[in-house]
Design goal:
The protein has seven helices and eleven strands. A six-stranded mixed β-sheet has the order 8-2-1-11-10-9, covered by helices on one side. A three-stranded antiparallel β-sheet has the order 3-5-4. The protein has a two-stranded antiparallel sheet with strand order 6-7. A hairpin with a 2-residue loop joins strand 9 and strand 10. It is an alpha/beta fold.
Length: 256
């Protein structure tokens, strides 16, 4: 190998950074390889909304959720149209529901600032048993791009480059039916003016999540490389031991 890390991550979406942060917290050396010149993957272009039943923000709002209720809801979804999802099993669903709230707690511990999503974003089939009529979603706090320093230009731009919560943007977009939309737009405009005067540049939604993930990863000592496509997965004895990127053989002691 030309060089070796404990953990090599291919791509730079939210799942990639979560993986990198876990391994970095365990004291392992981590390398993220992104094939394009920008960090963030498709997550940066998305709303960055995570569906996490029983998250800590629901409890803080006095709206406790239970694994049993969420499991009842997911089980009901499986028979909604008579064709259960072939890739889903009760064991997989329970594993997700058990560990997703812990993942949110972990990200908060790493300095990734999150908050509860819009409270008018219910489960898509909230009428089913176990469904939630407020929200089980989690999103990132709006992010000041200047916190990334020289990495600012490397973050993939999102669709909402301003200082506004995702819920505010959604409400403001329904001006015809929402009488409070003008007030929301006014607040966003005032924030934008204030941020310009203070030299701040905000983004929100998925780009905010990825900006915060990138900042946390860099602080944790994760090495991030752009313009580094992976052309080959190196396998020995049925185990991934590294990758080839830009002509270099990069070893991964613990996995890819």
């Amino acid at each position: 190998m030309d060089e070796t890390f404990d953990w090599v991550v291919v791509g730079s979406g939210a799942g990639s950074f979560a993986s990198a942060l876990v391994m970095a917290a365990a004291g392992k050396s981590v390398l993220i390889l992104e094939k394009t010149g920008l960090i963030g993957g498709t997550t940066a272009k998305s709303g960055g909304v995570m569906w996490v039943p029983g998250n800590c923000f629901m409890a803080a709002d006095g709206e406790p959720d239970s694994l049993e209720a969420a499991e009842t809801y997911l089980d009901a979804l499986q028979v909604l149209d008579g064709n259960p999802a072939p890739g889903s099993t009760p064991e997989k669903r329970r594993a997700f529901l058990t560990h997703a709230p812990k993942a949110i707690d972990f990200l908060l511990e790493q300095g990734v600032k999150l908050r509860r999503g819009p409270k008018f974003w219910p489960d898509y089939y909230d009428e089913l048993p176990g469904g939630c009529k407020t929200t089980r979603t989690v999103v990132a706090e709006p992010f000041n791009l200047k916190e990334l320093g020289e990495w600012r230009s490397k973050l993939r731009p999102g669709f909402a480059p301003f200082n506004a919560l995702l819920g505010e943007g959604m409400e403001a977009g329904h001006a015809r039916t929402n009488p409070g939309a003008k007030k929301i737009l006014g607040r966003i405009a005032l924030r934008t003016i204030r941020d310009k005067l203070l030299g701040r540049s905000f983004t929100t939604a998925g780009a905010a999540l990825q900006g915060r993930m990138l900042k946390a990863a860099l602080a944790a000592g994760v090495e991030v490389r752009t313009d580094s496509p992976v052309s080959e997965l190196l396998v020995e004895g049925g185990r991934a031991v590294g990758v080839v990127s830009n002509g270099k053989r990069i070893g991964a002691a613990l996995g890819v």
